[in-house]
Structure formats: C-alpha cells, structure tokens
Amino acid sequence: MIQIEEISKIGLGTYRMSSDNERYIEVIKYAIDSGINLIDTAVGYGYGKSELLIGQSTDPETRSSIFIVSKTGYSNKEEIAEFNQKDPNLIALDENTLFSNSPDFISFQLEKSLKRLNTNYIDCYLLHNPEYYCEKNFSTEELERIIFNSFKLLEEKINEGKLRYYGISSNDFSKIPLKAIINSIADFPNFKFLQFPYNIVERNTSFFFDNKNNITISELKNMGFYIFTNRPLNTMLNGKLLRLADTDINDVKPLEYEEELLFNELLQKIQNSLSKMGEDPKIEEYYPIQFFVENRKNMPDISTINLAINDYLYPFLSAINLVDESILNIVNNLKNYWHVFSLYDNQERLNDLKDTLGNQGIIDKNYKGNFSSYLAGLYLGNSGINSVLMGLREKKYVDSIKNLL
C-alpha cells in the first residue's frame, strides 16, 4: 500500500474521464507507469462511470501501488430509488441531482464505489461539498451533526478494512464549520485529507475559521492534514471560464470569413423552412437563433458549445423540420469553427492575465515553457500544497508534468 508520505505530487483527476471512452484506460496505465500514484474520482463523476473506468484500468498488482481517492454525496433519482430509504438529510440540487452526506447513504454509496473500482478498500473517501447544506438553509449546528455522524461511520468503515482514511472536499471551506471540525480531530484519528480548488486566479491561501481569524493552508498542513487541490487550470475570470493553458492558435481572421458564409447558409435554410411553414421568417424573433447570432464567436469552451447546440439549436431545427444530413454537416462544421474561436479568445484573455500577473511579480513574465506545468510547479512550491490534481486526459499531458514527479 502507498503510504501518505509516498503520494505523488501530481495526481490524476478523472472528473472528465469515463468508462464510455476506452482510450482513457491506456492513459491511466501510462500515468501510473510514469510515476503518478494518486488517482482522484467521485461517485458523482458520471454517476459512477469514472470509478468504473479506474476499476477497468487497474488489477490487483497495480492496486497496491496506487492511492485511490473517491468522494460521496452526489446522486441521481435512479440511485435514490435503489437506496429506498428515508433520508432526512437528502436535498435536491436541481431536478436531476440529489445530495446527501448521511451515514446510511454513505454506506450505500461506498459499497457501490468498491464494486465499480474493483477493489476491497479505498485509500481515502471524501465528503463531497458538504457546504451545499448551508446553501439549502441548514443551520451550522445541523451541518456539524451531519459531518460528525458521517465521520463516526467512516471510522467504522476503516475498522472494517473498507477504507484507510477520509476527509472533506469543498469548493469553499469558509462555508462549513471548520473550527468545530478541527477542534474535534482528536475524536477522528483517520480524518487526514482536505481538497479544494486552487489556481493562479483563485489563490485561496486561507479560510474563514471563526469570527476573528482565518486559518492558512500551512497551518492546516502543520496540524497533520494532507492538502491536495483541484481545478489548477480552470478558473472564472470576469464572469467567464478561463482555461490556464496555452494553445497555438494565433489568428482566426482567415476562418471568420469561411464561418460567416456557412452560418449565413444555415440562416437562409432556416428562413426558407419557416416560410414554408407559414411562420415569420425573421430569425431575430427566435431566441435560439438569436443566441448564436450574438454569442457563437465568444463561447468559452467546447462543453459550452455542445450544450448550446444540443439544448438550443437542435431542438429548434427539429421543431421546424430542418434536421437532415446536410444540416447536421453544416452544424458540425460550424461547431469546429466555434471551437477554434473559443480557443483563440481564451488565449487572448490568458495573455492579458499573464501580463498582469507578470507585472505584479506573481509569475515569471519571461517564462517560455509549458505554462500548465509551470503553474503546477508554482502551486507546489509556494503554497504548502502536497499534491495537485490535474485532468491529464492524454499521454502528452502526462509527459508535460513528468519533471514534477
């Protein structure tokens, strides 16, 4: 088994990896062979598909050389129906997503995690974003009770040999009763791990502790906590997603004319279809089309583009009987253009951020190497962080951080 002090400085985060894509199996194996022994997943990542991928990528020999972290909390209606118990701590986050950190539900999810991961133990199991209770108007006292009851259950699971350690993963530790939790750590000897977002924009070096004081990452580390961070390369800047990674797209002007012709062709087909149906052919009257007229060149990433196409464009085209092979080809080609535009826009905003941070002395303005690898090294060197979780979904991304292992 991997001991805490042996955990690699870079961990493999699998938030965007799923058993639906078999090529990720080779990426995980390559990462392990390259020296990464920390693999992070969660029940809520693809509702188990990320855990299933890890189980498919490892065997008993590999298992002893990796440290698996998973998280409990998120669920969907199908899993809740299978749980089939009343849970007073169950809350709805949206129409499809439910959430609970109750002991009975953790026990239920843990058994499913073990099966998907193809293992008889998990190295570390985290409560996933318990701050949601605060956002749903649970009192601080109620959240303390939920967390402490969960900790007691997790200690029992360690005694059963199903877990080694546990902890909390939170997007904002300032929203949970951190002081009460830390003051009770003597009662929970295997509560060892804390995970939260950290990047060059979100430099969370301390958290709200009580009415007068904050507690720093270094202080938490000195208390014996192992600190690992997520979202090292994704952040929000001025209300828009920013990817903290360079691309080689320096100019999109030659593509803008091509995209404009193709987009106008699509608009003309839409107008023709509307006229045949006896509808008003003025496309500016239809929100799904107006959305793309105004926003298609500045969407932040491919996920947003796909979401907009699937939620806005395709339903509209279907409603006006304009879904055939030629239309699908046009939309797919437009999507490729829009993706390039998003990468270019991201690089422009990233360059502005680099200039600002370089002038502030936060980063080396003269650094010319792989920026993502540079940032990961910066996080490890300056903040007291033990490990940085990165979404290394391709072998080339693994190669880019080998110098940090």
UniProtKB/TrEMBL annotation:
Residues 9-243 form the NADP-dependent oxidoreductase domain. SUPFAM superfamilies: NAD(P)-linked oxidoreductase. It holds the Pfam family Aldo_ket_red. Transmembrane segments: none annotated. CDD domains: AKR_unchar (cd19099). It comes from the Bacteria. PANTHER family: D-THREO-ALDOSE 1-DEHYDROGENASE, NADP-DEPENDENT OXIDOREDUCTASE DOMAIN-CONTAINING PROTEIN. This is Aldo/keto reductase. It comes from Chryseobacterium carnipullorum. The lineage of its organism: Bacteria, Pseudomonadati, Bacteroidota, Flavobacteriia, Flavobacteriales.
